[in-house]
Structures are given as C-alpha cells and as structure tokens.
Amino acid sequence: MKLAGRHRLIRLPLHAARVVCALLSCLFAFQVTARELQVVGTYFPRIYEQSADGRFTGLGPAVLESMAGSLRSELHFELHPWARAQHMVERGEADILVGPYRTPERELRFAFAAKPFYQDRILFYARSDVDVAWNGNYADLQGRRVAVVRGWVYGGQFEAAREWLQPIPVESVENGLRMLMAGRIELLASNQRNTLPHLVALKQQVSVRELSPLIDVQRGYFAFPRDAAHVQLRQRFDEVFQQLVDNGALRRLAEPLQVSVP
Fold first, then answer.
1. Which of 60, 158, 203, 242 could cross-link 98 (Cys pair, CB 3.0–4.6 Å)?
2. pLDDT of residue 184
3. Are 116 and 200 a contacting pair, CB within 8 Å?
4. pLDDT tens digits, one per residue of 13-53
5. Which residues, 6 or more positions from 257, have their beta carbon under 8 angstroms from its beta carbon?
6. If DSSP codes are grouped into helix, strand and coil, which group holds residue 135?
7. Record: fold of 35-118+219-257
8. What are phi and psi of 231, to 5 degrees?
9. What pLDDT sits at residue 206?
10. How confident is the model at residue 31, as a pLDDT?
11. How far is CA 115 from CA 56, 95, 235, 237, in A?
C-alpha cells in the first residue's frame, strides 16, 4: 500500500541530467557576475538629465539601458556637480562617468571607453548688438573679456592660448549667458548643445549670436575608474558598444534627442 502524499523520485537519463546541471550552472554564474553599476554625471542637456519624477533621460542613460542586459548589470543613476561626479569615478566610488571630453590630463584620472558616443560643436557666443571680431586667431582676443565654464575643456588650440588669454571662469552656461547679456563679458565659450536650451529659456535667441569659425569639435565618452576591478567591465563595455555602432542602434537612439554622434 502506497502512502498518500509520498513523492516519487524521478530519475533522469544521464544526458538530461547533464543539461539540467549546465543550465543551473549558467543561472548561478549569472547571479554571481550580475551587479549594480553606479552611474554618475552632471546635467548635460540631452546627454544626462533627470526629470521631475526622478527618471534619468538623455543619450547617456538610453545607451547604458540598451546595454545593461549584455553587461549583466542593473543601473543606478545619480546626478552630482561635475567636479563631484569626476572625483567619485576617479576614486572608484562610482563605476561609470557620463559624458567627459577626452584630454591627456583626464586620461591620467580615468579609463575612457574605446569610442565616443556623442560630439559637440564648441563656439564663441556674443551679444548681437556688440561688434566682436573672431576669425580663428586667438591673438586677436588678447585683452577681451572671455568667459569659460569652470572645469570644461575647449580643444587643443584654445587650451594652448588659455594661459595668456586668462579667461574668466563661470559656474554654468546660464551664468555665463547672464553675464554676457549684462555686458560683464564680451564672449562666452560654450558648446552648442548646452547653450541653445538656455537661450530659449532666457528668451535670448535673437539677442545672442554664434560666432564662426568653430572653436573645435569635442567628442564625449563614458569613463571608468583606472583600477583592476573595472578592467573586465571596460572590455565588455567596448565590445557591446561596438555592436550598437555597427547595427545603427547608437544613431537611432541619438536622432530623436537631436544629438550628433561621431
């Protein structure tokens, strides 16, 4: 007589048992390797933003979210002042920094992704009612009141002229535009992507003009801590990101955001 509720032992064929073990091993490996990646950055219009309801938007989060499954990672986004975000990644307190331009000085602090994910046009901005000449020769700007956003880089030629140009640092693009409109500076060096939304918000699209030629075109990257613990992440990131470039996904993500990609 069989007892009610007694479970029968099911014996699997040897090959089936091996398949089950392999599947369980893969699942266990995924659980072990999967981890949360802390992503940090500052407010970059259309690149890294946080909406009123707390969601992170822009090309940076869009790219990372599309890669998260392949990286076997959850993502935790945070918004910080730019200097703070950089220090967190430099010290290994965060895993990914969104959007820095690549410079020799920064290469000593961060490990950059192999390829950039966006590019910016860098320009001088001036008041429309003020005659300021700019033909690409920095020597002509000597004595002019030129402002730059603190912590930003503007390309090789500008950086070479920075010491004698002695630009005035401002804390943000918005502050720089307000100083420009008040006549406290004559030129503001900024990128087009960051500047246009502020001009619209300040209703100064007509009062402020872009000067040509361009100062430079700068490309923005994802960056990581320069430590052994992040080597595998960087390598896997580069592999997956290359797939986004090759299959056109990066361009498709950037188009509705009106962000230029390399």
1. 60
2. 96
3. no
4. 555 445 445 545 444 443 434 579 999 999 999 999 999 99
5. 46, 58, 59, 62
6. coil
7. D-Maltodextrin-Binding Protein; domain 2 (3.40.190)
8. -65, -50
9. 85
10. 41
11. 22, 17, 12, 10
Q: Are strands 118-127 and 208-225 parallel, antiparallel or unpaired?
A: antiparallel
Question: What CA–CA distance (Å, rounded) separates 8 from 187?
Answer: 83
pLDDT, position 107: 95
Single out the residue of 53, 44, 41 nearest to residue 77, CA to CA.
Answer: 41
Distance, in Å, from the CA atom of 29 to the CA atom of 23, rounded to the nearest integer, reads 10
User: 121-217 adopts what CATH topology?
Assistant: D-Maltodextrin-Binding Protein; domain 2 (3.40.190)
Euclidean distance between CA atoms 237 and 241, whole angstroms: 6
Q: Which ranges of 190-230 does DSSP label H, i.e. alpha helix?
A: 192-202
Give the residues of the chain that fall short of pLDDT 50.
1-7, 9-10, 12, 16-17, 19-20, 23, 25-33
Buried b (16+ CB within 10 A) or exposed e, 24-50: eeeeeeeeeeeeebebbbbbbbbbbbb
How confident is the model at residue 142, as a pLDDT?
A: 87
The whole-angstrom separation of Cα 261 and Cα 219 is 8
User: Do 35-118+219-257 and 121-217 agree at the fold level?
Assistant: yes
Q: What is the pLDDT at residue 133? A: 87
- Each domain of the chain, given as residue ranges in start order, spans 35-118+219-257, 121-217
- pTM here? 0.77
